[in-house]
């Protein structure tokens, strides 16, 4: 089973990596594949370019063979919708189960996604619990029906079908925010020092070298 981890990764940070590794171990994924969005439809445009974000993911996973990167959403013209990506992954290896990794807040917004009901025919959905987000109390009616029919309480059961289950998976909290990192990096050299340890060293060096996320062109 392949874990599919989409996002802007603007920038990718240690919380992303720890989450991917923890889920791979807990759920027995063969690998977790990071898929940076080119043009995400449900949020503001990323700050860093697609090329920079892809390069940072490549640097972050270097040396971790259990983690992969996939550039298809960056290379595909138009909006970065999830269902076409899952269709392509399924068609490339039909016998391999897929597990889409989403945060609890993103899951609650699933009915706003493009062709969202088709997700369940293509992949399992692993919902990562987040502090302050209670799934059952916040489900919109259309999603509540899918939740009640598809909820899986045993992670081991995911491997018994190719797709269609929803698993709520508790994980170790990693209170690292990409937006907070960007806010620090806007201060130049002082910001780089402030976020050291929150990103892989190679990613932070890339950001510094390319002057990413700096609000002042003359920031030292």
Instruction: Give the end-to-end Cα distance, rounded to a whole number of Å.
Output: 46 Å
Query: Low-confidence stretches at least 5 residues in length (pLDDT < 50)?
Result: 216-220
CATH class of the largest domain: Alpha Beta
Task: Domain count, please report it.
Answer: 2
Count of separate DSSP helical elements: 11
According to DSSP, the number of beta strands is: 7
CATH topology of the largest domain: Rossmann fold
Kindly report the name of the CATH homologous superfamily of the largest domain: HUPs
Q: Judging by the overall fold, what is the CATH architecture of the largest domain?
A: 3-Layer(aba) Sandwich
> Strand percentage, roughly?
5-15%
Supply Rg.
Answer: 18 Å
State the secondary-structure class: alpha/beta
Element string (H = helix, E = strand): EHEHEHHEHHEHHEEHHH
Major beta sheet, specifics? 7 strands, parallel
| Strand order in the largest sheet | 3-2-1-4-5-7-6
Q: Look at the structure and give the mean pLDDT.
A: 93
**Helical residues, percent:** 25-40%
């Amino acid at each position: 089973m392949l874990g599919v981890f989409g996002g802007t990764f603007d920038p990718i940070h240690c919380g992303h990596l720890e989450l991917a590794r923890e889920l791979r171990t807990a759920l027995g994924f063969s690998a977790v594949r990071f898929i940076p969005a080119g043009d995400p439809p449900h949020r503001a445009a990323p700050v860093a370019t697609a090329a920079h974000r892809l390069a940072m993911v490549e640097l972050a996973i270097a040396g971790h063979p259990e983690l992969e990167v996939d550039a298809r959403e960056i290379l595909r013209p138009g909006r970065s919708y999830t269902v076409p990506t899952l269709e392509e992954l399924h068609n490339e290896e039909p016998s391999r189960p897929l597990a889409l990794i989403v945060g609890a807040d993103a899951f609650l917004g699933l009915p706003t996604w493009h062709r969202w009901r088709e997700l369940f025919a293509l992949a399992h959905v692993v919902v990562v619990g987040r502090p302050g987000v209670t799934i059952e109390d916040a489900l919109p009616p259309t999603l509540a029906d899918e939740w009640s029919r598809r909820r899986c309480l045993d992670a081991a059961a995911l491997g018994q079908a190719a797709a269609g289950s929803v698993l709520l998976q508790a994980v170790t909290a990693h209170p690292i925010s990409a937006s907070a990192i960007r806010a620090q990096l806007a201060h130049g050299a002082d910001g780089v020092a402030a976020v050291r340890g929150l990103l892989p060293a190679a990613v932070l060096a890339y950001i510094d070298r390319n002057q990413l996320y700096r609000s002042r062109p003359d920031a030292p």
